[in-house]
Amino acid sequence: MGRPRIVVVEGDITVQPVDAVVNAANEHLAGGGGVDGAIHRAAGAAELHAACAALGGCPPGDAKATPGFRLPARWIIHTVGPRWRGGGRGEREVLASCYRRSLAVAEELGARSIAFPAIATGAYGYPPEEAAEVAVGTLLTTLSRLEEIRLVAFDRATADRYRRLLTRSPRPPEAGGQPGR
Ligand code: APR
Predict the structure, then answer these.
(1) In b/e form, how buried is each residue of 68-105, taking b as 16+ CB within 10 angstroms?
(2) Model pTM?
C-alpha cells in the first residue's frame, strides 16, 4: 500500500487512457445527464444500461463497477454522490466515501490507474470549492495500491482549484515510513 501519484487533467473523462473511470451516477444507476450521460454515450448506451440494471442500484457513498465497453478504460466505477442540502446532512462524509469506495473497488479489480470527475458538483449542487477540498483531502490521505489518480476537471476553474489544493497540501509521510515520498 502506498500513496498514488495525483495528476490534474483538464478535459473529458471519457477519453482518459486509464484502467478505470469513475462515473457520477444516481442511486438507480439509470443514466442521466452531465458526466453520466457522456460516459453512457461514449461507452455504448445500450450495453452500459444493461450492465447497470444488473447491479440493483447503488446507495450514496458506495461504488459499483461495470465493464468500460467502448471506452479506452477497461472498467467504469459508478459512484453516487450526495445531493447538497445545505451541508448539515452528512454530505461531506458521503462525498469522501465516494472517493474511498471508488479506490477500493478499483483495487479489487486490479486497476493501476483511475480517473475521477468532480463528483456531485453538477446536478447534485455540491459547492465546488468544498467538493474539491473533500476530493483532494480524501485522496491524499487514503492508502492504495493504485499508481495514478487523475482528477479530471471539465473546466479551468476546477483544474485551478485542484492544483492550488495539491500545492498547498504537502503529502503526509508514509505511515511509519520516511517523509517526503
Ligand atoms: N468529463 C469530465 N467531467 C464532466 C464531463 C465530462 N465529459 N461532463 C460533465 N462533467 C463535470 C461537470 O462539469 C461537473 O463538474 O462533472 C461534474 C459532475 O456533474 P454531474 O455530471 O451533474 O454529476 P453530479 O453533480 O454528481 O450529479 C449526478 O446527475 O447526470 C445525473 O445521473 C446523474 O442523477 C445523477 C446526477
Answers:
(1) bbebebbbbbbbbbbbbeeeeeebbebbbbbbbbbbeb
(2) 0.94
